[in-house]
Each structure stands twice: as structure tokens, then as C-alpha cells.
């Protein structure tokens, strides 16, 4: 420690003191929110029973660790929920991405990504402070920024997974709807048609139809399973497909015609998406033309005239 920078050591000690004071303030009984049960519990009589039947308390060290880490973990989870949404929204986004993990697993992955980002930020901060002689506050800011980037980066990967799955389902949907229409027109029931498509095809959408068939086999009605199919997929057209088929089954409408109409609507929507993408790409292609090609054309057109004028002068 003799060769350490006194400013850096002082900044670390001040940071530790500040974190400790903040934790003490947040964990004090005066600032801790009390629920209804905690407020009325002292005024209620409870039969405590025999002490032999009480569960054994945790060891002293474990109790101390839970008391110290518990408030920190709760505040970290609250911060993550404010940054990336609450547990219900996160569960729905995980269903839309097709992930089998739960919200708790995703939160753990976010914390690990935040720790990894903080470690990389610490390495970069040490290099900046030691080699460049920057301020220790800048190094602390780099560490915090690395942790935040790691947490938000994991959420961005989840959103990217939802977008990729939506695009993949949009490509598969017209073909799958045609297969369902052919199977129903051949005399099969809607459940048997979905099971045939799920068994004979591969992709994100056939997997969802397999899950829908499994729900129906477990006791759910066809209408409820189709509505649930629209809720757990990111494709809006698939939600309309589930509602249309459910209404057709309830009202006795010819299902093959409904499925063909749904497939035609899906193709029209795909064409509109392609036209929108082409329009955006056309505008993007104007950037190199305006900023790179056009200035060169102007230079090649004007430079000979300037050269002639220079020679004449």
C-alpha cells in the first residue's frame, strides 16, 4: 500500500463509507415500509404452541448474512424491475421469446451480466487511472457504467430474441395456414390438423402448435388453447388467426375457408412488410449517393473547367 495513490485510496474509503451509510439508512426501522400485517401484529394474540414443535432457527452466521444481504438484494431487484419492467411483464416477454426459463433465472442472468460488465469496467478503470492519470471518480463512473451496460445488454438480447422469433413466425405463418386449410378440407378435425402440421413441419410456429395440441389434450378447450396461442406469440397476425379460428369453431363457420382467408391475409401482410422494408432501404441507399457519389461527380465535372481557367490566367 506504500506505492498506492492516496487520492485513489481516499476515494475507495469514502465510497465504502457512503455505501455503508446508505445501507444503514435504507435498512433502519424508521425508513423501512411496514405492511398491514406488521402494524396489527402486536395487537393480536397468537397461540405460539409448544417450543418443541417450532421450526429450528437458522444459525447465527446465516441469520446475519440474510439480514445484511437481504435488503441489498431487494433493492437490486427493485432497481432491475424499474429498468426492465416488473415480473409480470418479464414473464410475458420470456414467453414471447420462446424461452423456457422463468423470471428468477433471467434476473440472475442480468445480475451476472452486470457483474461481468462491472469487472470489465474495473479493468478499464484501472488502466485509465494508472496509465493515463485520470481522476478516480472517472474510474468509478466507468465501473458503474459497465454494470449498467451489462444489465441493459441482457435485456436488449431478450428483445432481439423476440424480434427474431416474430420475423421467423411471420415467414412460416402463410405456409402453415395453407397446410392447416388443406388438412381441414381433407376431413380432419382442427386438433388433428394442428397435430399433423406440428409433426410434419419444423420451426417456431409448428412448435407452438404442438404446445397448443398438448394443452387441448390436457383438458383445455380448443378456443381457449387458440387464444393462449395468440397470447404467447409475438406475431399479431397469429393472435388474429387464433381468434378467427376460435370464433369459426364456436359458430360453425366452414373452417377451411377461414384458414384460406387467414393465409391470404398473412401473405398480404408479408407483402406490405416487404414494401415498407424496401422503402426504408431506398432512403438509406440515398445516403452514400448524396454524401459520397454526388460530391465526386461534382468534382469531376468542375475540376477540368477550373484547370482551364488556371491555365488561361
UniProtKB/TrEMBL annotation:
This is Type II secretion system F family protein. Keywords: Cell membrane, Membrane, Transmembrane, Transmembrane helix. InterPro entries: T2SS_GspF_dom. Residues 177-301 form the Type II secretion system protein GspF domain. It is a multi-pass membrane protein. PANTHER family: INTEGRAL MEMBRANE PROTEIN-RELATED, PILUS ASSEMBLE PROTEIN. The keyword Transmembrane applies.
